[in-house]
Amino acid sequence: MVRTTIKPHQTRRGFRATGSSPIAVDVSPKEVKVGGEKNGGTQNHPRSTLRPSITPGTILILLAGRFRGKRVVFLKQLESGLLLITGPYKVNGVPLRRVNQAYVIATSTKIEVDTQIAEKFTDAYFAKEAASVKQSAEAEFFEEGKPKVKAAFPESKAADQKQVDKAVLEVVKAKENLAKYLKASWGLSKGQFPHQIVF
Amino acid sequence: MGSTRLYTKGRILGHKRGKRNTRPNTSLIQVEGVTSKEDTKFYLGKRVAYVYRAKTEVRGSHVRVIWGRITKTHGNSGVVKSKFKHNLPPHTFGASVRVMLYPSSI
């Protein structure tokens, strides 16, 4: 059965209200194409949940990856379940990026962010470019050791970044110290234990 | 420059064991600042890294890591059981371990 509202939790001692009002969340399973002859073509996969502490505009702390320790702004959750975030780029160098929920701490700091600006971004936007013409093994061998030619960062993506950040920066600049807060990295220091910290 | 530490420190206390028999597939870890069973709840499932240096360079680095996860609590005073990809060798007892903050649930 597909549950679309959150009901009171039933315990042995009777009903216990969960405190949150019913939120309209699309929890219908999504159809996914599957390979293999005997697998029936498609399967129903459950949708990824999002921690209640993560809402659009929440400041997140990245725990791993290239930008570990950075504080970033959460925009929306993509189809795949990954979170779409932005630095903003001008503030801390973090571009529009996907990140997994498990590698993120949600802080209680939230800003007003219009979810419309992130409307057009999907997982396909972040897909890697298909490798161009394959070189012969010999040519590749001679290429090794020479600096690789990198494709220039696409203008359209740079423009997208600016457009999204424009809206976010307005809100960030309005709040006192928020830009400095996002610029600074987070780390544990002596005497700080994460199980005691209120984020 | 402020702190960049994104892990909690821990110590390897030893293998899971009875008085006379050891079970080396599970190691006991003391996480810094954790002194009760309730406090350990935060750390369950978190990934742990035993980081060490070696003389020979492998894949461009002298630093090597054995990864693991915190699996259960151990006793009432905040000690925790963990399983690593490869069992921790006994010479690591007393050594430091990094308890990462991921997979995060907050």
TrEMBL record, chain A:
Any one GO BP annotation for this protein = ribosomal large subunit assembly
Q: Where are the transmembrane segments?
A: none
Q: List keywords of the entry alphabetically.
A: Ribonucleoprotein, Ribosomal protein
Q: Which InterPro entries match?
A: 60S_ribosomal_eL6, Rib_uL2_dom2, Ribosomal_eL6_CS, Ribosomal_eL6_KOW, Translation_prot_SH3-like_sf
Q: State the GO CC annotations.
A: cytosolic large ribosomal subunit
Stretches the record annotates as Disordered: 1-20, 29-51
Q: What protein family is recorded?
A: Belongs to the eukaryotic ribosomal protein eL6 family.
Q: Which protein are we looking at?
A: 60S ribosomal protein L6
Q: Which organism is the protein's source?
A: Hydnum rufescens UP504
UniProtKB/TrEMBL annotation, chain B:
GO terms of biological process kind:
translation
Listed Pfam families: Ribosomal_L35Ae
Q: Where is this region: Disordered?
A: 1-25
Asked if the keyword Membrane belongs to this entry, the reply reads: no
The domain of life is Eukaryota
Q: Does the keyword Ribonucleoprotein apply?
A: yes
Compositionally biased residues, Basic residues = 12-22
Q: Gene3D superfamilies, from UniProt?
A: translation elongation factor selb, chain A, domain 4 (2.40.10.190)
Among the GO molecular function terms of this UniProt record, one is: structural constituent of ribosome
A GO CC annotation recorded here is: ribosome
Q: Which InterPro entries match?
A: Ribosomal_eL33, Ribosomal_eL33_sf, Transl_B-barrel_sf
Q: Which UniProt keywords apply?
A: Ribonucleoprotein, Ribosomal protein
Family statement: Belongs to the eukaryotic ribosomal protein eL33 family.
Looking up PANTHER family in the UniProt record yields: 60S RIBOSOMAL PROTEIN L35A (PTHR10902)
Q: Which HAMAP family match?
A: Ribosomal_eL33
Designated name of the protein: 60S ribosomal protein L35a
* Organism name: Hydnum rufescens UP504
